[in-house]
Amino acid sequence: MKINDKQLKLVDRQIKRIIASGNYYSEIYKKAGITGVETPEDFEKIPFTDKADLRNAYPLGIQAAPDEDIVRIHSSSGTTGKPVIIPYTSKDVEDWAEMFARCYEIAGITKKDRIHITPGYGLWTAGIGFQAGCEKLGAMAIPMGPGNTEKQLQMMMDLGSTVLCATSSYALLLAEEINKRGIKDKIKLKKGVIGSERWSDAKRNYIARELGIELYDIYGLTEIYGPGIGINCSEQTGMHIFDDFLYTETIDPVTGEVLPDGEEGEIVITTLVKEGAPLIRFRTHDLSRIIPGKCPCGREYPRLDTIKGRSDDMFKVHGVNMFPSQVEEILGTVDGVSSEYKIDIAHDESKNRDIIMLTVEADGRVDFSATADTIKALFKSRLNVTPNVAVVSLNTLPRSEKKTQRVFDHRGD
Ligand code: ZN
Q: Which end of the chain is less enclosed by CB atoms within 10 A, N or C?
């Protein structure tokens, strides 16, 4: 969806505010000769911003409002280097709660609900976002934070929690515990609001079935308020994103070219009214697509499809861009193969070509050599590359609680 006139006016106002503030981005815009935007073409000329910029501006270089207007900061840890600090004005805090309350409403949650909040409270935006939205809606917040499963389940039973807010991993753990203890009939949960990340249908179905709840994916990131900037409705046709606060585009993660609605790429978000730390064209590195057309629910907010992965995880072989999600899709169709895999990429100097080595796990009832051939053929037909494939026994590849590194690039080693 092209940026509309109302959104353009808001971006123009943001740029003028940024320049007047003298913050980190004011220098970038001054150097680029950007003074404002009048047309969608002007907008597309504004350079992207990235997490690296936010780190360069550490701690408060992106602040665009006077100190006396800042009421809170949040921080995203990041895996490497300096954290990122995001300052908020009272209006930013209020706007975020407004969006979050809308998310709950879209999920059919009302004032009568009791919302069990397990994401963490602290520097990051998780717990406090769920809480502020709940209070704005007028429901009862049960601010548990993570951990202490014993107490979680006790409170859930005693207070009759009706909504569970959690990561998919924690929701799974609670579902397993409830199942193990046989206390399902004492649990009153009806809905789950789950922080959006890539999670398998198997996991989703298990949680929904074991807890007997409807699941809603909530989207957000610390740099852009936090969780609660979008959620799927009961039609389950993508997450509605609030376009009165945010403008969302999709780009080719390599060329930066803006893609039409419906095409998969990297999601880029512009904050239209944020005061403390406005961001124009922020690269989220989340891979998804904007779903074209209108949602059957009748809401006009544009929809974002499920997050397919991270553009940082993309790798290039023989000049072809590949994503872990494509590898997972292929492996998901092969009988007896687990979802764990490892990819090593090397360069054969003598032949001047890239070599891709794929290691996958399979259970003992399938023929490893035939399985390897099947995978090779699937890669050839779907991605036009032929990897070397090693099939190993189940549980050979390392597991990790956090994000597992699956792609190892040895070119240039
Ligand atoms: Zn809808």
A: C
